[in-house]
Amino acid sequence: MKLYLVYLNALLAMSASATIVGAFTAGASPGAVVRQQCQRSASPRRAVYGSVSLSPIVPAASSSSSTTTTTTTLLRMSSSDFDFPSAMPSKPEQTMKEKMEESATQFIADLTARLGDGVDPPPELEALREARDGGDSDENVLAVRIYELMIEQGMTYDIDPDTGRLTPTQFDIKENLDIPEVKKEFKHLYSYGMELIKRGLIDLDACKDIVEKRLIERTGLSPEEFDKWLGY
User: Is the pTM value of this prediction over 0.70?
Assistant: First the structure.
């Protein structure tokens, strides 16, 4: 436990090198890397994490939208060159809670749509839905529920590389700790929790509890062995 606590405290003292949004929306997740290797080796496939984000997803500009924007700026309300678009009030900035609620909605919709026929969602999905809809949950509670669901999606489902559909995994984690991609997946989820701590979205004790119960116990390692396995 000593090494585990040292690492947690060290991370808290570090300056953030990436935003939470970056952690959610990284282009190549560890789960995707595992799936690619498993396709080559015919070993069980792991699930990719949901594309949940802590801020609204902004679609990339297309050529058609650029044309529309150009046309709009040329339209004038009168000969006085009144610019109607620029006169519109700016959109109110979302609070962190509103961003988290939006992220929760996106995550729930994404995971639900990807479940295979007859496959039940993990109970953590309903817990996230209740936190989002309850009205009395703040951004910290939502962050905890999102993190828990993110872990369970990665740990309990396989993904079909052709359809993207999720099915219950039969992958034996304890017997495959020597596979580099398995270690990368755990390290990603572990580090993600540390990033939430640094952002003030999850407190230290809550994150420790989640990591110990949902990550460390799945490996069969002690906290000290888990730190050593991940290279800390």
Answer: no
